[in-house]
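Translate structure to sequence.
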């Protein structure tokens, strides 16, 4: 297909977004403006350009809403666990084994990784930090060591694969034909390798700073802190009961059983396999049932109100975290022939342009057909996109580029996308 003005504008828009990320600025405005300009240039209609702004975001929202939903549900569940004090009981058994700084480092890693897989790092880290960091510091782990352990395990190792909730893999695969479930499997392996290396380097760098256990360690840490900085707390009334212990055991056990089933059914024939994407649905549905059960056990008279409030708060958090991804993903959706017809208002889907694929095909002679160079290039692009602070903004771009460039380089597009995802999140 011959390259048109709209093709070149899409290329310019992509470069503008990458450069904007490089300067650590928000890319929403460039994405919206370039969506408008491309829509206007495609058929010469100013009105169509205006419609494309809305259609692109609407299409992205429709394709990505399941991501917002699973985040909202799991956040609501975590809030309900907090309301009965079960969140503290879930991690309290580990307090007894944090005897020294060395053990404390790796216990923080394991707990943060496990909780971040199920509840995402952002809601989990404050809980872990409030309960376990003082204990780890008392055991002799330096404060920076505790911070590094939690950050690498949660926002790095767990989030880069996002194996349970599969938000990151779904975003990466959203603008391509890459299977999100298979991508999650590849990302899990890469995240474990990357995480082990990063955590080992971190541990070796701080192990000589680990000191003997003492209450004095915590006192000095608290005295060195900024008294003007206070962690805001939600107006949540905690009502502990006998059911707190039950749910502190039931919730993690239930999710571990689900994950174990998914893993065994995926990698063996011992259990019937589940459909692609069904894992997140099972977890989401189970979380809602647990949410209702917790609310009933806490105060059955307030169940209708409490469940609704938890879900509303979950959606608010979900859109705060992921809302800006919608217009950005909308721009990259324009470059895919699977979505461009709907966005540009083309009646015949067979005539839909694939701007990104056409650009890659046209520049094929200038792109080295080498797997290592291609993989390293996608990794660097992911690292640049991660400069925005989250790494999620350009995951759709990484997915579409991986699919377009993989075949000529002789590399599996799913593996290539997983490499880019590592660069973006880490």
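Result:
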């Amino acid at each position: 297909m011959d390259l048109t003005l709209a093709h070149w504008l899409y290329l310019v828009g992509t470069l503008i977004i990458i450069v904007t990320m490089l300067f650590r600025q928000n890319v929403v405005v460039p994405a919206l403006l370039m969506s408008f300009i491309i829509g206007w240039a495609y058929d010469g209609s100013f009105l169509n350009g205006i419609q494309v702004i809305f259609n692109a975001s609407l299409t992205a929202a429709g394709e990505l809403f399941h991501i917002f939903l699973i985040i909202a549900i799991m956040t609501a569940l975590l809030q309900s666990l907090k309301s009965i004090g079960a969140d503290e009981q879930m991690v309290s058994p580990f307090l007894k084994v944090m005897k020294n700084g060395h053990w404390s480092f790796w216990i923080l890693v394991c707990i943060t990784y496990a909780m971040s897989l199920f509840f995402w790092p952002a809601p989990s880290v404050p809980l872990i930090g409030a309960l376990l960091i003082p204990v780890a510091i008392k055991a002799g782990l330096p404060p920076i060591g505790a911070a590094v352990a939690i950050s690498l395990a949660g926002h790095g190792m767990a989030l880069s694969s996002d194996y349970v909730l599969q938000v990151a893999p779904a975003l990466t695969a959203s603008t391509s034909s890459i299977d999100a479930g298979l991508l999650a499997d590849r990302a899990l392996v890469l995240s474990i390798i990357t995480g082990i290396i990063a955590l080992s380097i971190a541990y070796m760098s701080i192990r000589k700073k680990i000191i003997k256990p003492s209450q004095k360690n915590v006192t000095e840490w608290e005295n060195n802190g900024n008294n003007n900085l206070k962690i805001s707390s939600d107006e949540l009334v905690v009502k502990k009961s006998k059911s707190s212990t039950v749910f502190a055991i039931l919730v993690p056990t239930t999710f571990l059983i689900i994950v174990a089933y998914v893993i065994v059914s995926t990698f063996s024939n011992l259990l019937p396999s589940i459909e692609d994407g069904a894992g997140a649905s099972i977890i989401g549905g189970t979380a809602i049932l647990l949410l209702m059960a917790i609310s009933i056990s806490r105060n059955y008279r307030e169940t209708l109100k409490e469940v609704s409030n938890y879900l509303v708060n979950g959606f608010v958090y979900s859109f705060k975290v992921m809302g800006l991804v919608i217009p950005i993903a909308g721009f990259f959706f324009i470059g895919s022939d699977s979505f461009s017809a709907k966005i540009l208002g083309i009646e015949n889907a067979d005539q839909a342009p694939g701007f990104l694929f056409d650009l890659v095909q046209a520049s094929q002679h200038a792109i080295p057909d080498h797997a290592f160079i291609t993989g390293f290039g996608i990794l660097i692009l992911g690292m640049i996109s991660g400069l925005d602070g989250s790494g999620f903004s350009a995951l759709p771009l990484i997915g579409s580029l991986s699919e377009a460039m993989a075949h000529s380089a002789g590399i599996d597009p799913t593996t290539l996308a997983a490499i880019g995802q590592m660069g973006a999140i880490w």
